[in-house]
Amino acid sequence: EQSWSYRFQAGSVKTLVYFFVLLAVLLSSLVGAYFSVRRWQAEAMFIDAVNTSNIAVVASDVVEKRDNVVNGIYAAVVANPYEVRYFRALSQVLFAKLNDIFTEVQKRDASVRQLKPEESVVVQNLTIRNINAIQRAVALDPANVSVYIDAGEAYRGLVPLVQGADDLAIQSYEKASELEPINPFIKTQLGQLYLIKSNLFNSSVGGGEEVSKEFVDMARSTLEKALELNPNYANAGYFLSLIYDADGRKPEALQIFLALERDNPDNKLIDQIVQNLQNGL
């Protein structure tokens, strides 16, 4: 029986190494080109979807328009699942679809102003998808303060639908405040969330819910920091003065509202609050 044997020369080994190196480079180039094309396709689909959302349509076409936008963004996500902008936009348009449903419900007669079974299913589905989009955006870009602001607003909008959404909104804004501690807008939003969590105003209008002193204190402290950053920040002043009023610190509340009145001379609500405070109410 005849046998064969081979012996590689030094030059043959070098040639083989060069061959595999070139092959690896070629494969890397092809993979890179593939993903570049996919990213380009994803961006094109996303831009097309966003442009669709800016097209003016009649009310009867809103649902179809929203669906087209959602489908376009999902197509972009499939092509490139690592672009945080896609998930942020997806969350916003899903929330818009939720608002569309509740707007239609509010148009009904009071006796039937509730979700139909099929609408409840859609709302639940949209809510889950919205939360998934928020969480994916945060996971992709955990150092981006804008992502946490988006997340905070999204969770805040889901409070009536999802138990614990208020806590998630607070956590999102707390993280945003850590990333950007000198931003009065973030502190004001966070202070409002603390204030809502405290039940201070629910109690004052006969809601019967127990007031959380801890959250009132957190709201007061956070809003005071917002005003330290920007003494003219009206939203922070408005909510802080309401807390001062509840604290019995009416002169301090009045001083803030007088400043707000000077800057907002046409605001009837502020005028009424000033009158009430001046009359000891």
Q: How would you explain this protein's 3D organization?
A:
Helix 3 (84-106) packs antiparallel against helix 4, helix 5 (145-157) runs antiparallel to helix 6 (165-179) and helix 6 (165-179) packs antiparallel against helix 7. This protein has 12 helices and no strands. The protein is elongated and about 95 Å long. Helices cover 76% and strands 0% of the residues. With 281 residues, it is an all-alpha fold.
By helix and strand content, what is the structural category?
A: mainly alpha
Label the overall shape. elongated
Rg value: 28 Å
Major sheet summary line: none
H and E string: HHHHHHHHHHHH
How much helix is in the residues? Answer: over 70%
Strand content: under 5%
By DSSP, the count of extended strands is: 0
As residue ranges, the low-confidence spans are none
What key phrases describe this protein's structure?
281 residues; mainly alpha
Topology:
Blueprint: H1 10-53, H2 62-79, H3 84-106, H4 117-140, H5 145-157, H6 165-179, H7 184-198, H8 200-204, H9 213-229, H10 234-247, H11 250-263, H12 268-278
Short description:
It is built from 12 helices and no strands.
